[in-house]
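User: Structure tokens for both sequences below?

Assistant:
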Amino acid sequence: MHRRTFLAASSALAAATLVPTMSLAADADLLSAPWTGPYGGVPPFDKVKVADFAPAIEAAMASELAEIDAIAANREPPTFGNTIEALERTGDAKNRVDTLYGIWSGTLSTPEMRAVEKVMAPKDAAHGDKILQNGALFKRIEAVYDARERSGLTPEQQRLTWLYWNRFVRAGARLSPEAKARVAAINQELANNFTTFSQNLLADETDYVLYLRTESELKGLPDDVRDACAGAAEERGHKGEFAILNTRSSIDPFLTYSTRRDLREKVWRTFYSRGDNGDAHDNNATIKTILKLRVERAKLLGYPTHAHWRLENAMAKTPENAMALMMRVWPSAIARVRQEVAEMQTIADKEKAGLKIEPWDYRFYAEKVRAERYNLDMNEVKAYMQLDKLREGMHWAAGQLYGFSFVPISDVPVAHPDIKVWEVKAADGRHVGLWYFDPYARQGKRSGAWMNAYRAQEKFRGKITTIVSNNANFVKGAPGEPVLISWDDGITMFHEFGHALHGLNSDVTYPSLSGTAVARDYVEFPSQLNEHWLPTPEVLNRFAVHYQTGKPIPAALVAKIEKAHTFRQGFNVTEYLSSALIDMKLHLAGDADIDPDAFEREELAKLDMPKELPMRHRTPQFQHVFASDGYSAGYYSYLWSEVLDHDAFEAFTEAKGPYDKTVAKRLHDKVMSIGNTVDPAQAYRSFRGRDPDVKAYLRDKGFPTT
């Protein structure tokens, strides 16, 4: 019953049961059958039909339950082999169909697909509860757990035994039959609401497009942004016009460069009102229901709040510890915002703009400040930020750190023509895994950037290599033209690739402990650490080359970027941290009757949130938190992990630099390769020689360290 990993702003992977027909059964079997082909087998993307998902999942569920029942009914005394290892062998068919289903749900959604999701989500929750609330099975797991330290188990086997025992306990294995039934009902209700939330948000992102038609409306937009908008419009049947999509990758450059303040405000208001328009796609009632269900479940399971339940196994351990770290940073962040706003207002006043800085002005005037203070035009930088070249740079840096090479292949099926695939090889030439790259926005694809694991690495049943993917939402340029991305987008690419590297480096025995299957506030550590390699001269000099001349980015321009490193950190940290604080406060509110809009507004006021910028994810569009349980009461994880990553990168700078081979090997051995075989706090200490120090993070942001 191991599960593959879907990271970042992902919705819960729903699965469920519909009654199959005989005519569908044969095709549906293709979706759950063992993968065939090269590289140890590959996902059969060319065989997928939406109509086949329901019967395929039904068959896979039945198969998994039969496997589980056989373990539970075993009359032999429970052992690690006949119970824990037996569980590791279950659920393969369901994992395979769930992988395909998740890709279609997240990147190829259609009305037909969304209709299936609505029916399937609660049934998948019920299926999971049938397993996790199986009393006979839990008795066997608990017997192995109680004897784990005297049974001759390896540390990894003991960790796996704890993982199963803990998972079952936290799901309600020890509850009364009545309480178990209520927890199961709550999980089904939550699954329904997660799907509703996701589909409402996708509708607001997909259904709204602003078409620009005149030169006046395009004023200030660089050529590459215009080209991307033209391509997006043409894809939607509006050739000759320019489309601003209701996604972050489309609105951010518009807010940065458009000189039409009225249009900036219109675009900003539309984007930040997603899920909050009082219409059929409004998410406020759904959020209210989710919060009520979560706190009821937490109390049934013996926890005061959902936040306490979620953080029990995290590095932070308690909501209080997470809040303490956030509030350590918050005052410095908002103080910096006030400085940034004052600088922007000075420029606006000089220009006699006759305005007070509003949220739709922040990016626009921040760029003016950047240009004035640092003589740095980020659009000039963008000319050196070619998507394909930066992808090559990611691969090259991974080769320097971990010995990987990436070889493009075309002998495997893909889910969409935009997706490309690389074979990953070790320094000695052996096959490590496959990396799929799906970079472009399209209708039916959720917004954001994320990593998937299609198949977990393991050695338990022979050498099984991983298959990972990175997914983004860059807007395609004109045919034949390179796609230019922002510096921040480049950082995001390296971030998500860090998750992929975490999976590719995995070298463990059991799939449930593999790769990125670690604590939520630790999983972002390897990805955020990987961001540090984009700004290195070794990457920039080779791969940040001008899209027209091919010349590398000038040293003087790089120096300006470095000098401006702490620029706009008030905005960046406050935008993120306000979301993390509201997430935690929502889930610490207990039984309070919450109006999400009012709660957000009132709590931000208590925090003295600057009015000139919004939360990065307003509550009605907070997919991390309300499209699944994934990051609920856990959005703080990015800060927690960023403290780790800055402290860890200083291990490189204290040695011979970012490519120090000794530190890279220690990172591989103590962090990247061990998955969840070791407690993350212990793993970090093994790498760094001590606990992390928050001062490295504060120094990086230019905040006070005292």
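Moving on to the next sequence.
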Amino acid sequence: MLTCFLVTTYFCTVGQSSNWQGKFEQLGKELPTPNEYRLGSGAPGPKYWQQKANYDIHVTLDDINQTITGEETITYFNNSPNALSYLWLQLDQNILDEDSATPKVALDGLHNSQDTKSAAKNFNLHNFKGGLNIEHVLDEDNSALKYVINQTMMRIDLPTPLTSGESVKVKIKWNYHMADRMKLAGRNGYEYFPEDDNYIYAVAQFYPRMAVYDDVNGWQNKQYLGAGEFALTFGDFNVNITVPSDHIIAATGELQNPEKVLSAEQLERYVASKKSFDKPVFIVTKDEAVKNEKSKSNRQVTWTFSAKNVRDFAFASSRKFIWDAQAVKLDSNTPLAMSFYPKESYTLWSKVSTATIRTTLETYSKYTFDYPYPVANSVNSADIGMEYPMICFNYGRTQPDGSYSDWVKFKTINVIIHEIGHNYFPMIVNSDERQWAWMDEGINTFLQNRTRLENYDYFPNMGGTAIEIVDYMKRDPNLLRPIMTNPEQMVSRGYNAYYLPSAALNVLRETVMGPELFDEAFKEYAKRWAFKHPKPADFFRTMEDASAVDLDWFWRGWFFSTEHVDISIDDVKWYRTPSSTVDVENKTKKSKKGDLQRSENNKLLAINDEPLPFNIKPTPRFHYNEFQSRIDDAAIIENLESKNFYEITFTNQGGLISPIVIEFIFDDDTKEQQTIPAEIWRLDENTVKKVFVFDKKVVNVVLDPYFETADTDMTNNLYPRKKAESEFDKFLEKQSEQ
């Protein structure tokens, strides 16, 4: 009978509440059902599989006409349990085809004015003829294969289905005109330098690439419209790149024939750089690069690169490149950090680029796994930050006299950290960027911030922390999207894909889980899914599985909703036992310094100026039920006589469930901070009360004093409330300084 009574009482209490919206319900219905491919723990299952695609590519860069011509042989391995009657390939260059859907679906409008650069691009005045021209698609025996091109995707029909465990070879020949990035922007193309009549080529998405076929989606053949990036299959690459003999190339993979493309002196420096751990070695110096700019050789050479177990290949080529390199000592690997840049960036990049690569590899390795590839390249190209395996294209230029501001330096270091960091997410932990931008951009921005905080203490915040997303979360709800939104539907991709998920992970690490639990769980996710294809559920489940922290409420709120954090202190009541030295009957007694009085214009904004009575009584016998032992009533009463009790009412104004980070300031100017887990909201998601007991008297209560939860309204975070907003602002300023 007693048990039934307790259970009934509990459910009646819950049932009477109208403040339940299921925010603590498990995510089971929203996540895919675990199976033998992907386990409920978030780990790959015993029958997990993924496809493989090897590439043998030969491309020629025409420095006169800015074109690429290429031939490739793709060897595609079907490791799935299914027979495939056709293959899907990505033709991402077709985003610039004259029939591309991208400009057709772009939203635009007219304003009072528009600059010529924007107008020429927006109104298609360049008359650029882009897109891949497919010359042929052949099988291993050079017989033509039937294919159809649908915008940025190409389907190749196989004569006979490719059964499980088999492989097929496909030969493709193609060509295309590279885009002028100054005119058309984009993730790849060329940059022209009129002063010396030279180019920097940043060449990516330059070959037909296999789409991903996996256990969750089948073929990932979602069209490339520009915002959603790439979903790619791992494989081995052997790539021959033919360029003018005075060009220097940076590429994915290791250079296989340095003795054929470098001078004897350059080769000697290149070998020496692999053992230089204290400073970079200049393989091509500034003077040599300046001399190279004037050569304009008509002779061609072929650079050969090999890359194992990568999902993509990109390269950069120019006769303007200065080239420096330095070895990085990790626990299990010694990659070569290399930077390529023109004289227009020399004074900045020669100081920061390779050093930043080293710092990034060391820091990311600490939080995930040792960087496994042999090289990591940073290439300077104007107004871009874009990543590929072992290579990235980054902005950062000096003034003509070689000077640069601190802000340019900060931005340059920041972009290099970010793009080098992408080697981990998504180049190794190979998420689907076309569908889930946060899984690479957001996670990478989070680690980028860890790298900045741990190595560059003089840096300003540059996005991705809790305090930096407050203004975004206060926007018109019509402009907000959940993190779990396809990038093509994001109104503000920078916040949605980068800063918001990064801030969420910061809150998760610093406030919800704590660094120790978070770091171990995060490292487990990275190791489980290195060189595999994780989905969001794999991340969510692994973080819980490896930490024993139930985070479904967190994922539901931060990732699936557009609610924001706004917790308010609505009331604070001060109590003491009547037997204490406080005269609770003297209602006319003046308050001590630090207390704020109530008023008609400021009611419920101050802690009551005298304590309310709170009685501690001996426990009645029937409360002990069957227990024979007893509490020492006198000791308990004596212990609590000198205590101050504070009953605080919190309301959830923003809807997003959050831990309550609270700081108490006492009448002797000392402070104490406590963090109440988010589960305090589990029975009532709108209003909760909590009692705190102290020896000292509280004069101020502050929520989120160090801005770690992204609370969007700090004006209701202070109690007593300040009557004058300027006083409140001064208080917040003082808190932030501390």
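User: Anything stand out in the second?

Assistant: Confidence is low (pLDDT under 50) at residues 1-17, 580-604, 723-727.
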